[in-house]
Fold these 2 entries.
Entry 1:
Amino acid sequence: MTTYRAPVADMKFLLRHVFRAEEMFATMPDTNEVNDELITAILAEAGKLIEGLVAPINQSGDQQGCKLENGVVTTPAGFKQAFAAWAVGGWSGLIGSVDFGGQGMPKVLSALIEEMNFGANSSFALYTILPTGVTLTLNQHGSEQLKQTYLPKLYAGTWSGTMCLTEPHAGTDLGMIHSRAVPSADGSYRVSGTKIFITAGEHDLTENIVHLVLAKLPDAQAGPRGISLFLVPKLLVDVAGNLTGETNNVTCGSIERKMGIKASATCVMNFEDSQGYLVGELNNGLSNMFTMMNHERLSMGLQGNGLAESSYQIAAEYAKERLQGRALTGPQQLDKAADSILVHPDVRRMLLTMRANIVAGRALSLYVAFQLDIGRFHEEADVRKQAEQLVALLIPVQKAYCTDRGFESCVLGQQVLGGHGYVAEWGLEQNVRDARIAQIYEGANGIQALDLMGRKTVRGNGELLKVLVAQMDEFIHEQQSVTAMQPYLEIFIDSKQRLVDTTAAIISNAVDAPDEIGAASYAYMELMGLTLYCFMWQRILAAALMAQEAGSGDREYLDGLIKTGEFFLYRMLPRSKSLVEEIAAGATVMMAMSAEQF
Ligand SMILES: Cc1cc2nc3c(=O)[nH]c(=O)nc-3n(C[C@H](O)[C@H](O)[C@H](O)COP(=O)(O)OP(=O)(O)OC[C@H]3O[C@@H](n4cnc5c(N)ncnc54)[C@H](O)[C@@H]3O)c2cc1C
């Protein structure tokens, strides 16, 4: 059976040749020491830890799952040791603020490491990404006191964190939450309520758990504008950041039995008059929570990419060895009873679809991560603003498109193995089960599509898209004199224009027909995703051609990249035309049935 290998060479190619990371980081004072050498060392070190300690407990973790006894959640064998190694290695504070013990590294690096972790063991990855989201939120919105007390322990991996939004009757519509926060005389709050589906709400990996909880003050207005954000520790802490020895009435009521990510504890969490501290301003909790949600959404896209990569590695190895049938053009392996299934065009369709989506999905995730870094580190306000606009536009697409493609790749990988993909031994059925959740949590993909279409496009009159299109045009302009790029660029220019024209048509149709927004949204998100993958492939093809011409890099590797890019452009991108037709069909046929007819 193939064991997960961190795709460090692929990642380095993207960073060095496609995004020119070293040059980009050199332009910003806080990142100018992040050079190719450091990037290589960090990725290699992370890859070693993940291959050696995290991947080996993936299948056993799935089989054992988590256990809840007397309010205590036990993670599967090996998780404690792996998390301890993760913490000791300093990985919990990789992108953390240096003022509080973090290492101040760029998101680009942590995004790639997250992808590796998700590919090797998605349950384990979840225990690592949630605390990072908590630290980002605290660092951006918390008081100085809260930062001093909590950030060092979170960066050290001694404590972990959660995101407590969902309640039994309030999932997508968080405006309906019931959790309450009552002010205390000492300036803190008493938080009460029940949260469900809380990832890593309770476990045995760290000595304390820091919950970020959405709740409402008793006199808060109804709806999302009455929501505030509170930090509620599982165990009480003094101002110096030491445990006081007192508990805080935060208990785990039960853990869910579920389809996948079985080693990740999904908890019902009860807060009863638990001491909490306001994070950010009152009634601005949902907006502040978006710092964490944007981070987690990017991570979910990385989960899709990571599991797709893991499935591809298994399926490609298997296809080389599996002998069934003969090539349509005549036998290829005359000394064998049959040819490898790689001779069959349909098997190649599956593997190439996986490969093309993985490379483009990784590039898109890096593109978003670079914008996050520019937004955080760049000295010029207008450059930061442009990066933030791109993040706002791209996060819902990256989340939804990469998780959909990730799940699809896991299913395709399973199909390549035939019956062996369906049984547990090869790990592909686990990947399918583990990838499925990424399409649902952190805002179901339909909600991401609606956010992209409604808030980010129609309501903003397409202004954010103009920022993206300007970047695409800049690339086209740069490549205009490169002869070998011309056939690819023609396809890209057409594809970009399809997106621009479709956007204008939806904005105009939506003026007096609001259902048009919801009806167009999913296909529009897919059209945007395909166009972005096309943009990423253009950049990869340009970089590969340049490296080929310069005679640098592995020739076979570069040639394989170019062939995969051409498969994407000629066999996958044409789907954008049918998406345009689908969108043009409008809302009428969708809304025609009465509720009784369903
Ligand atoms: C394993 C797991 C881990 C999780 N971890 C966490 C966590 O750590 N913290 C946390 O707070 N939550 C967590 N969640 C909750 C998760 O984020 C929610 O399940 C998700 O956001 C969807 O909410 P819901 O399940 O209530 O579905 P609903 O909101 O009921 O939605 C059901 C369906 O209706 C659609 N829909 C709803 N409203 C609209 C609308 N206005 N327009 C169009 N379509 C709509 C949705 O897209 C979806 O397809 C987790 C869930 C699971 C299963």
Entry 2:
Amino acid sequence: MDNILRGQLNDYPVRFFFANTTVSVEELRRIHNCTATASAAAGRILTAAMIMGVMLKAENDKLSLIINGNGPIGKIVVTSDSCGRGKCDIENPNIDVLVNEAGKLDVAKAIGEGKMTIIRDMGLKAPYNSTTELISSEIAEDIAYYYAVSEQIPTVCSLGVLVEKDNSITCAGGYLIQVMPNCDEEVIDYLETRIKEIPPITEMLKNNMSQTDIIDKIFGEGNYKYKIEQNIEPRYFCDCNYDKAERIIKSLGKKELGDILNKNEDLELKCHFCNKTYNFGIDQIKTFLD
Ligand SMILES: [Zn+2]
């Protein structure tokens, strides 16, 4: 079972989110039939978006994280919500397996150079929208850079996906730690050093460390006391349905609907997020024209 722990330090303005998203990333891989490098890239983005979704305030708020680079994987769109539900659309999930000099799956090369856009839809007229450059295309650094530049919040972010030889997901997860204003320099210095000392997130998850084990590993040495405020169960979830598919077809113009009818074939609409298909017969499409 996946989970995201949300908490904060008792004596300092530091909040954190620790996520295990192994099941969700495996579901993403299964739906899109991803190659290893595509799983690593999209899995990191899904994990980041799930954590950022949980940070939203109201139940109906939604977040979209869009990574648009010039690499072979193309555009990746993840939509998430405050309950930890997320879904992902990948332009090219079957890219070649790319490995970097360190022998790791080369997410940066798969994504390439480009931009990251975050859209927060909080039910207002205009959703909040912010775009930053990708500074490394490894995703975690790009998320930290986004918070530093767009929201002036010093942030530590780590994301990881480990893929088996048969392409299934061994483990996936990540964490995000944010230092709010007026925090002691001592805590910031400690965090900066400690994060470099601990093993990568995938190694800790692979060794069956729970999120609290990992939180203890980061804050325990410095004897920082913390409290867990929420335990959320994230999951891969698509909210498409027949009514939404029908609305998309109805929103097509008269000309497009006419073209579809001229082909005299039933219409199949496929959801990019979950691959579910919705079929519409000719007679049904005719009624949409009226
Ligand atoms: Zn769907």
